[in-house]
């Protein structure tokens, strides 16, 4: 049964399996995932790892590389990307444990992986909470919050977020180890184990998900109230439109986070009350919930690119794929640090690169040049 346990070592063992106790009276003969199923989980896990590692590395680089990207919101996004990347890095270790059905890396690495994984999950939700509070200050108190909404303050707050996350996961630092029962990397709770396990599930769900989510919802409720009241009195200024774009991006990131993590926490809470029967179906459901939490770390860089013009331009610049739109009044080459006041002709555009391809846009009567890095 799944009641506070992982029934066999051949289940996909991800770092949050420490939320469950392993029961010593379970039969080790029942193996829900075998053969092709184990291979499938390994392929999915490694795909998520590669996509997440690439996307978050790119997000980290562009924030550090371009001065224009060092806004308050982007500093928090930088910390979120670092947390996502460190979270993703633990996936190959846990996939190896799943394939081999035991933990081959020793006690020290078990503790390191478990601690890093837990800490960065907490850091993610705390970063989203801070970003939501920042959006509240920017929209509801735009003048009074100016002295607090500064990159230096954002860096101090980010440091505090990491420190708090480490304190919160001290139980994982202390009790994570290689278990004798299945030789798996998990939590070794003292007696009474059931009490410790239940307390930790509730503690993790409250501090690491539902508590911050309540604060986030309150922030956006106040933002909605403010925007409705101000919208009725005044038109949209350029600053207000910009704030709305940033707020929309943060809201979408938060919503995706909740959708990706909610199934996992629901399973944990249900698991405290109801004995979940052991079967391939329930094992598959648990695997889906686990891999969905990792998929969230892959989704975030994609969201940055779709929802932020600056991130999209920076990504194009780093990937050496840039779209240059030549107008009578200026040029947009996708470089977030480039000036926007140059007068550029179609001839100048074509001379930007010997590899450029130029074509005429009949709808806008503009010459569009696409420069592609081929090296």
From TrEMBL:
It comes from the Eukaryota. It holds the Pfam family 7tm_1. One of its GO terms (cellular component) is plasma membrane. Residues 55-304 form the G-protein coupled receptors family 1 profile domain. GO terms for biological process: cellular response to glucocorticoid stimulus; regulation of insulin secretion. The chain crosses the membrane at residues 39-64, 76-95, 122-141, 153-175, 195-225, 246-277, 283-307. InterPro entries: GPCR_Rhodpsn (IPR000276), GPCR_Rhodpsn_7TM (IPR017452), Somatstn_rcpt (IPR000586), Somatstn_rcpt_5 (IPR001184). GO terms for molecular function: neuropeptide binding; somatostatin receptor activity. The keyword Lipid biosynthesis does not apply. It is a multi-pass membrane protein. Keywords: Cell membrane, Disulfide bond, G-protein coupled receptor, Glycoprotein, Membrane, Receptor, Transducer, Transmembrane, Transmembrane helix. It is found in: Cell membrane. Belongs to the G-protein coupled receptor 1 family. This is G-protein coupled receptors family 1 profile domain-containing protein. The lineage of its organism: Eukaryota, Metazoa, Chordata, Craniata, Vertebrata.
């Amino acid at each position: 049964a799944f009641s506070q346990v992982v029934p066999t070592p051949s289940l996909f063992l991800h770092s949050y399996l420490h939320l469950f106790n392993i029961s010593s009276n379970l039969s080790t003969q029942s193996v829900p995932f075998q053969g092709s199923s184990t291979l499938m989980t390994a392929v999915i896990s490694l795909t998520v790892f590669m996509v997440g590692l690439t996307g978050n590395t790119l997000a980290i680089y562009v924030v550090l590389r371009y001065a224009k990207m060092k806004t308050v919101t982007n500093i928090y996004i930088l910390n979120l990307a670092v947390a996502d990347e460190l979270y993703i890095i633990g996936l190959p270790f846990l996939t190896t444990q799943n394939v081999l059905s035991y933990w081959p890396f020793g006690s020290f690495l078990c503790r390191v992986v478990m601690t890093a994984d837990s800490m960065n999950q907490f850091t993610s939700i705390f970063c989203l909470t801070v970003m939501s509070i920042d959006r509240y200050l920017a929209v509801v108190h735009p003048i009074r919050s100016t002295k607090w909404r500064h990159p230096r303050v954002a860096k101090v707050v980010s440091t505090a977020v990491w420190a708090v996350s480490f304190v919160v996961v001290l139980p994982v630092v202390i009790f994570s180890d290689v278990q004798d029962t299945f030789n798996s990397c998990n939590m070794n709770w003292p007696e009474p184990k059931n009490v410790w396990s239940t307390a930790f599930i509730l503690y993790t769900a409250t501090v690491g998900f539902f508590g911050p989510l309540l604060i986030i919802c309150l922030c956006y409720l106040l933002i909605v109230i403010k925007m409705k009241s101000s919208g009725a009195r005044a038109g949209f200024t350029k600053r207000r439109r910009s704030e709305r774009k940033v707020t929309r991006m943060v809201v979408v990131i938060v919503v995706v986070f909740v959708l990706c993590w909610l199934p996992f926490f629901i399973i944990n809470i249900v698991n405290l009350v109801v004995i979940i029967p052991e079967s391939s179906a329930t094992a598959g459901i648990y695997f889906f919930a686990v891999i969905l939490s990792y998929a969230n770390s892959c989704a975030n860089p994609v969201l940055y690119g779709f929802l932020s013009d600056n991130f999209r331009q920076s990504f194009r610049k780093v990937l050496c794929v840039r779209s240059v739109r030549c107008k009578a009044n200026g040029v947009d080459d996708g470089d977030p640090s480039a000036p926007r006041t140059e007068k550029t002709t179609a001839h100048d555009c074509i001379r930007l690169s010997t590899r450029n391809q130029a074509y005429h846009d009949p709808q806008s009567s503009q010459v569009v040049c696409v420069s592609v890095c081929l090296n």
